[in-house]
Structure formats: C-alpha cells, structure tokens
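At this stage, I wrote out one protein, both as residues and as discrete backbone shape codes, and that material follows here.
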Amino acid sequence: MPPRAERSRFVGAALCAFAVAACGSVDDPATTGSLDAAADVPETSFDGAADDATTHPDDAPATMDAPRDAARDAHADAPDDAPRDAAENHPDVPAPPPDAGPTEPNFDAIPWSEPGLGVAYRDSGNPRGDDVFIGYAGYNVTADAARAWVTALFHATLHDHGVRHVYAVQGPRDVLYAAQEIGNSHLIAQMLPRLVPGARVLVAAHSSGAYVAHELLGQLFERGLDPTHLTAGRVSYWDLDGGSSGYDATIAASVHHGYFVWAEAGAGGTRSPNASTMLALGAAHPGAGGAVRLDTGGAGCNAGAVWCMHMTLVTTRPHDPANASAALDYGSFDATHRVQTAWLEATGYGVP
C-alpha cells in the first residue's frame, strides 16, 4: 500500500468535491485529472424392443394354448373392476410432481454475518455456481445501503451468472480512505477457504470504495495474505468512476481483468467526474481490460450535473437529477430506479 502522502497525489479533486459538505473544500491542483490529456486514449464504448419368443404350434399340445407371460396373463385375466393404478382409476387425482431437488434458500432471508469491520457476508447457496462477489460502496455509504446495492445486483444478475458467496462492504469514513478501517484482511481469511477450484472472484468498487478495493488487491497479490496464490488470475475487477491510488503494475499483472468504467451522457455530453482518471488507468493498464465508457444519457441527469452522472454507475436513474444522493441511490431500487448492471454486461461479466 503506498504511503498516505503518495495516495493523495493520485486522487482527483472530483472525489473530494463529492465530500466537500463533510470534509471541507479541498483545492490541490496536483490532483486534478485532465480530460484533454486522455481524450485520444482508445477505450471500449457500449450504448444481452426385442420381439417376444416365437411359439411353434408343433412343439405344444394341440389342446393347449401356447405359454404366455404370466404377468401379462394376470393383468389380462383380471376383472375390469380390479384395482389398478390409482391415477388410472381416478383421473381427477393429479400425478405426483417430479422431484425438483433441494429448495434454494431465500437470499433476502439469510442473515448477514460480519467477518470484519464494515464487511457483510451471505452464502446464498446458489446451485448455479460458486463464484464470489465483493461490492465496495463509496465514501460514507452506510452498511445498510451497501447491502441494499449488492442485494439488488444479486437479484438482477449475479445469481443467474453463478455467484454464490456475496460480500457487501460499507463506504470508507473519509474520501481518501486514510483511516484504513475496513476489515479486508478478515474478509480474505474467510473467503479463501470458500474459493473452490474453478470459482472466480468478482470485485466492484464505486467512487472512494476503489481505495478500499485496492487495499484488498494489494493484500492478496503483494502483502502475502494469499500465500498459496489461490486468487492469482481469478479476480475480475471493476473500478466504477473511482480513484487510482494503490492500483499498480503488480496488481494489474495479477488480476484476470481490470476495467475502469466511466459514464457520459451521449457523445460529447456531461461526463462522470472521474472520467479522466478512468481513461488514464485504462491507458496505463490496457492488457486486462482497460477503460470502459457507458452511455447513460437516458438517466435523467441535468446537463453539467457530474455527480448525478457519478451515480449512474450504481442506478439507472439517480434520485436527484442535479446531484448525488448516495443514501437513496444505493439504498432504494424500484421499477424506475433500477440497479445499474450495464458495466457487467458490457464486459461479459469478466468471462473469459
């Protein structure tokens, strides 16, 4: 993990602007990304019978019928009203249903366990697969809101794509994650024994949650918390309009995929606040995925409302067209405000 002083050099002024109400104004020109500098960087852009034995008359007495199957004779000779199959005699009685196998647990009814500070876990018992999903929420997002976001993702798409083990991580208490309070090491200690052969680890981090995710990736690939290298080449990572600090060449070489996702309201429209950071990361680490642009022009954000655009990585229609409303955008999903899954779809869920 880079020193804290080094961390701040990489963060865009945009993230601190998101937290200005809580931490005051931050004015550090060195942290401001340049859209023009990254404008020419290529990025991905996305707008779903054997016969019966023969009887020979010559071999049988003339006065006897040829031998027949005993069971067949018993059935044929039985009176018409002899008891037979219940469904045959009583057509109104439905046949028993086929064995449907074990009942899958109701995900919403499974209690969350807390293996570490700020970390919640559910084993869904999903029979479709054994993959792991870890969702990191942005600055100051509560545990309940983070769980609501990840739960919505599970119902919308993760279940059908084989995710079984689900982690929801609350947002860091400060924009740059200087306190490093989240229990990532405990998450890793609980996850590794559950990582069966062939299972993948999907990690998604929005906004300042990216710094927390980068800590976890550093612990896995640089600090020895995965001593047998179970996760090497099995992690697909999505940085959703977040920060860059802590994501380095070693991590980039160890993940299976690394995507850096930003949003734009149509061609040339308002961009999410960390678009330049995502483009820069994509240019620096293009091999495993690179920068990914989402067109979220239909999300209802006002022209110039960058923080509303920021939330289009979480919900298809932010609650405030002029700004971010983290509590609602993470915590309240319905037919109008659906959970955003386009970043998964556009990248094929990190497969292959």
